[in-house]
Write a structure and sequence with these properties.
This protein has eleven helices and 13 strands. The chain is α/β, with parallel strands linked by helices. Helix 3 runs antiparallel to helix 4 and helix 4 packs antiparallel against helix 5.
């Protein structure tokens, strides 16, 4: 089967910053793919390119076997989109916004939408403006799924939602993938996506630092605690294929995060002058994320990853440009 999403050296440069730098990405159908990255890492810029709202500086992309730059409408017919702050028409009722959006889709859209909001127990006669953020997210998800898209793109969809709504929202994605559809989830909420994702991509400063199945990613990463007889002793450079991502000084101990570590290397480290002992353990996804986004860091911890500075994301498209296509995008497929 062809990949649902594939990119080749996708690059996006804005004045003063590089949002994406040579991103190569392949996402297979029937999976939940989670793209992790700090605010400003380039996640939303990538989504805008994939949905045809942004022309890349260079490189190419394919979504559901279509070029989003040359065939944007074909892509959007096959994609559902939910953002962290869905742009819905506040003056409409829950039922009216579904009826309005159904005019852009084949028969069956409105019935599927009504079935979805009934499951969420949201009255059809209630105005959008009086809904809570959680209810608005459920409306946006219902609109995005009513045409049964091949690909569902979620851009920080659980931001600001209460824990129960977040759990329901994300767990519904597992069933989506089980039916053969694909979910692309962009987030920096690591603990949430770890429960639902099959494959993880880590984007940092516009570069894809890692992209592989979750179990493979966690299995390839190891934390070493090296005890030293003197804080100035250097830990020996590990032989290939091991790659040191992060090294921190902790007095007479050195914390080293390594990719592709082999247990046989422990004896190599212990044989070095000044090394007293070595302990190893498997890393959590959060630790793996920090290791990739703070590569080369040595010293006391800095601010949390989501607060760190990065490339400025491109602005989202205005709500409507006078055409019918732009209006419907604001309800369920906007990027």
């Amino acid at each position: 089967m062809n990949p649902v999403i594939s990119t080749d050296q996708l690059t996006m440069r804005f004045r003063g910053c590089d949002a994406l730098l040579g991103v190569d990405l392949t996402i297979q159908p029937g999976t939940v793919f989670a793209l992790l990255g700090e605010n400003g890492a380039g996640k939303t810029t990538l989504i805008r390119i994939l949905t045809g709202f942004q022309k890349p500086t260079s490189g190419s992309a394919s979504v559901c076997d279509f070029d989003p730059l040359k065939q944007p409408l074909e892509v959007r017919r096959r994609v559902g989109y939910v953002s962290d702050n869905p742009a819905l028409y506040d003056w409409m009722t829950v039922g009216q916004i579904g009826w309005f959006t159904a005019s852009f889709y084949p028969d069956g859209f409105y019935d599927a939408y009504r079935e979805s909001i009934a499951k969420y127990e949201i009255p059809e006669d209630r105005k959008i403006r009086v809904l809570s953020k959680g209810q608005r997210a459920k409306i946006a998800l219902s609109l995005a799924l009513a045409h049964d898209p091949e690909l569902l793109i979620l851009d920080e969809p659980t931001s600001g939602l209460d824990p129960m709504v977040r759990r329901e929202f994300l767990e519904s994605m597992i069933g989506r993938a089980a039916s053969g559809r694909t979910v692309f989830l962009s987030s920096h909420q690591i603990n949430e996506v770890e429960r639902v994702a099959d494959t993880i991509g880590i984007l940092h400063n516009g570069k894809l630092q890692a992209c592989e199945p979750l179990n493979d990613l966690k299995g390839s990463m190891t934390e070493l605690t090296v005890s030293l007889d003197d804080p100035l002793v250097q830990v020996p450079t590990l032989p290939e294929p091991a790659e040191t991502l992060l090294e921190e000084n902790q007095g007479r101990q050195r914390r080293v995060l390594v990719r592709n570590f082999d247990p046989s290397m422990i004896s190599f480290i212990e044989s070095a002058s000044g090394v007293v002992g070595v302990r190893d353990r498997t890393m959590t996804l959060e630790e793996i994320f920090i290791a990739h986004t703070r590569k080369g860091f040595a010293g006391p911890p800095g601010p949390p990853p989501e607060l760190s500075r990065g490339p400025i994301e491109s602005p989202k498209p205005p709500a409507g440009d006078g055409g019918r296509e732009s209006e419907v995008v604001t309800t369920g497929e906007q990027s």
